[in-house]
Amino acid sequence: MGKGYSLGYTKGMNAVHVIGAGLAGSEAAYTLARLGLRVRLYEMRPYRMTPAHHTPQFAELVCSNSLGGEGETNAKGLLQAELRAAGSLILRAADRHRVPAGGALAVEREGFSAEVTRTLEAHPQVEVVRQEVTELPEGVVVLATGPLTSDALAEHLRALLGPHFLSFYDAAAPVVLGESIDLSVAYRAGRYGQSADYLNCPLNEEEYRRFYEVLTQARKHTPHDWERLEFFEGCMPIEELARRGYHTPRFGPMKPVGLPDPRTGKEPYAVVQLRAEDPAGRMWSLVGFQTGLKWGDQKLLVQSIPGLEKAEIVRYGVMHRNTYLCAPRLIEPTLQFRAYPHVLVAGVLVGVEGYLESAATGFLAGLNAARLALGLVPTLPPEESMLGGLVRYLARANPENFQPMNANWGLVPADEGPGKKSERRTRMYRRGLERFRAWLAEVGEPVQA
Length: 449
What we know:
Blueprint: E1 16-19, H1 23-34, E2 39-42, E3 66-69, H2 75-85, H3 89-96, E4 98-99, E5 104-107, H4 109-122, E6 126-129, E7 141-143, H5 151-161, E8 165-172, E9 175-177, E10 187-188, E11 198-203, H6 205-217, H7 238-243, E12 270-276, E13 283-286, H8 295-302, E14 313-315, E15 318-325, H9 327-330, E16 343-345, H10 355-373, H11 386-396, H12 421-442
Parallel strand pairs: 1-2, 1-7, 2-6, 7-16
Antiparallel strand pairs: 3-5, 4-5, 8-15, 9-13, 9-14, 10-11, 11-12, 12-13
Helix pairs in contact: 1-10, 2-10, 2-12, 3-4
């Protein structure tokens, strides 16, 4: 941010409250502060620790130390570039503390978190308050408490938001890129001739046998002790169904009844249904395929399904403890609550998955919180940018089956031009970054080199 830059901070203005100092909250607080707003940043650690955190540092990385792949053909690479253009604290700290990781941006954990903490604690516009918040304070608020939101605050949010606030053990199925599905095999149909909203991948008896072998030989994720996995019948992992018997998946999510293959006129031996994840049909999830398998084994399993042999997985299935909102029912693309527009939400709580995505939504929530505090209209990045595509997805996804999402090429309009996939994605990267930079200039955000 340029020296002395401000959107118009007035001395004496009430502070904006940021609750949670993870990656999203830290980025939101920094964005507000560098725009000249006073910030009150709440973090309950170390006075109240979570089962996952080990230090009182801000932006602690509790799982992997990677912020995703880099480069012009990588969706996360575009999001990284957008955050760098916006002057992100998280990306600046990551670049300074990076460690060799091939084509990924990985960091040395302690140095990374220490820099973020130091920067915010030393900032003259930031007041750090080390205490648990159990109710939303008055005024403009950025809520960024993460997947392990404290019980007291979760109950307060539940009372405000009703049943749309979700707090359970997250069960998600893999999501594949629509353009990677073989439509010469997969066919559109709904059961018994109902609305053909699903894609169906048919399996004959031999194909099902091979699929079952891959499934039963796959390795399962070993949870952290704080995840305490509990399975519910309504979201039973596909591997647990297979453990109950060879035919159990065929009488469950892979039931072929009412789905005749139009090429044969007969019902297949088994079928895998795919449901659109977005209105444009760029991404499709495997219905009933909640899974906790290791990612490499998930890829083998998905690509063993006819029609998905070359499927590109944009989000892997997970089974872990999570607390997040049903964003499509509650959130505007600007990250404001529809019912409480002075409250913005960012990070895992709003329904994103990943460090980078958390930081990116923290930036936008911070920017829009600043604009609200100054009486300006909240703003939205262009749909061609990765951040713009991500927040539009959060607000417009199917609320009935909403699951957290990470950065992927299915979130932005495809490039329909000629060339290989890598060439098209390079053009998408350059288009998205160019339009993101132009948007930053339009809203008065100095663009970083």
